[in-house]
Amino acid sequence: MHIAVLGGDGIGPEVTAQAVKALRAVAANGPQFEMTEAKIGDAAFDAEGDPLPERTAQLAERADAILFGAAGTFDSDLRPPEQRGGHALLRLRKRMDLFANFRPVFAIPELAGASTLRRDVLKNVDLVVLRELTGDIYFGQPRGIHVEGGERVGINTMRYTESEIRRVAHAGFQAARARKKKLCSVDKANVLETMVLWREVVTEVGREYPDVELSHLYVDAAAMLLIRKPADFDVIVTGNIFGDILSDAAAMLTGSLGMLPSASINAEGKGLYEPVHGSAPDIAGRDIANPLASILSAAMMLRQSLGQPEGAARIERAVRRVLAEGYRTADIMEDGAHLLGTEAMGDAVAKEI
Amino acid sequence: MHIAVLGGDGIGPEVTAQAVKALRAVAANGPQFEMTEAKIGDAAFDAEGDPLPERTAQLAERADAILFGAAGTFDSDLRPPEQRGGHALLRLRKRMDLFANFRPVFAIPELAGASTLRRDVLKNVDLVVLRELTGDIYFGQPRGIHVEGGERVGINTMRYTESEIRRVAHAGFQAARARKKKLCSVDKANVLETMVLWREVVTEVGREYPDVELSHLYVDAAAMLLIRKPADFDVIVTGNIFGDILSDAAAMLTGSLGMLPSASINAEGKGLYEPVHGSAPDIAGRDIANPLASILSAAMMLRQSLGQPEGAARIERAVRRVLAEGYRTADIMEDGAHLLGTEAMGDAVAKEI
Ligand SMILES: CC(C)[C@H](C(=O)O)[C@@H](O)C(=O)O
Ligand SMILES: CC(C)[C@H](C(=O)O)[C@@H](O)C(=O)O
Hints:
Two copies of one chain form a homodimer.
Chain A: E1 2-8, H1 12-28, E2 34-37, H2 42-48, H3 54-62, E3 65-70, H4 85-95, E4 100-106, H5 119-122, E5 126-132, E6 144-148, E7 151-161, H6 162-177, E8 182-187, H7 193-206, E9 213-218, H8 219-228, E10 235-238, H9 240-253, E11 261-265, E12 271-275, H10 292-304, H11 309-324, E13 327-328, E14 338-339, H12 342-352
Parallel strand pairs in A: 1-2, 1-3, 3-12, 5-10, 8-9, 8-10, 13-14
Antiparallel strand pairs in A: 4-5, 4-11, 6-7, 11-12
The structure holds 3-isopropylmalic acid (2 copies).
Protein name (chains A, B): 3-isopropylmalate dehydrogenase
GO molecular function (chains A, B): 3-isopropylmalate dehydrogenase activity
Cofactor (chains A, B): Mn(2+); Mg(2+)
């Protein structure tokens, strides 16, 4: 099994290195992995003039799965899009057609104190946001800024085809089927025609999954309910831009952003696995970032793209044990716990594996 | 002073009737108001075949301010847009150019128990979401569902002109100037050109307000921070669709959606004042809805459109006293409090005025 390791920018390489450690520990008495590193993001732009060098893209395409860190830093935000680190990720998503972005959000009892939500509200939170990742206003044409009647005008196009909606709807129903059998589709069908089509197609696809309970929410109501009753959700399926917002809001509920993995998968089951947190350039290079989201992303990769559920479970158990033993990185530190740096946390997990 | 009273659908008329009571109580020893009622929403569609009858629209335009309840119920969601109650509101916003939607969100210490957030996080939450209300993907052309290559395709257009952004930016800086002097502009400039223009224009306008501290957040980060550190915000200015989502999320933080007023104002200072909650048809007609958001909307109206800050303060003090005395409607009920119905709560506030 061949894994492309793209650490990227900011804390990306540091946390990804700990996930690599975990994979090596799994490989010590289990499946063998070939891991190849390559540059992406600002790091790649600085070195080679392109945030997504062709060599990196081809490595990613050839590999069985991609372990990704983070791309982009504040520095590149002012550069033209094609030179920004963050855009490397958008290009890779589109190029590999990674349309299904799964973001599980779960409350970790040991870390309940880190949440801004009340403990009783947090209890039983265990949901997945499935965000469509290759369509919507992110990629729709026409787009741009032009001058009209003497002033600047900006436009972007929200756009979904029936087949784009259909495939992510199937992914949503299948995910729900494997969980609590509840799918909530989020749209804005009361205002946007694109979302009327979204609701119609999701409803049509739903007829093939009579065992899954389908509900619909407008995006504003969904944002409310996520805060009000997060434990009511199972799988949420939504478009790219609404998913961007809702998945980050959902990630915040548990207070442990540094713990949350994600997967972006295409029709062949190939996927890019990355922590939900970003490149956090302000804390990069200081050995204080939490590597657990990256380590848990490696576990997701083993289960979803590499057919290694046992390896995945070994990593997840190890993370739970390390937390139960009271080890914490700075972001989730509590009174009485043992503070570890990035490397030491990676070592602790590897040892438990 | 002439007020158009548009109760609308669901609990709209019930709660609006209590706000009218409060205004009468203010008028008993203060300014005189002429109030004229008219139909809007599903109620208007059922009676006259149009959710925004021309007579209602003209009354709204002629009046000095509009006291609005709620429009639309689930029933009409399946009808074509122009027949849906909710669309009456979109049409009225556009027709009267009510571009600046202010939604204050404040923690009420007496009601802290109703929030799903931890009490310490809630403390000092006092922010305003300023949502642009007449542009963006809500109104952009082209839009619709068409067939392309044998399948249905939905499109909508996000669109902002420089002048649309400029006027709402000014409204934001002015609001911040009157408060804690912090304006946070929320966009998605890392992906959308429309939002690049948004950021540029807000930054330009900011040069005229050197006393206001301007910051920028991407919408996904803003959704996170609202949950993580809500007390850090003062005024948030954003576009129509992001504002729809963020203002509802923000409203949920305090746990007292039934308490939150809003104002939608145009360039002449005319405004439509309405509770943030919707028509809630499931509880309509049962005398259990919380009228305080509508009553506080009437106070906002006195202050912002009718030049009656003293009348506004009288209403707001009365609401605080009624809460301090332990009176509650069902939605904010706690152990040991006195439960009141909609009418009785309206009476209690009027008596305190
Ligand atoms: C960096 C940015 C382009 C990206 C997005 O909006 O998709 C990020 O917010 C994410 O969610 O992965
Ligand atoms: C009813 C709907 C069209 C409306 C909107 O999206 O603007 C509502 O959600 C609001 O926020 O007032």
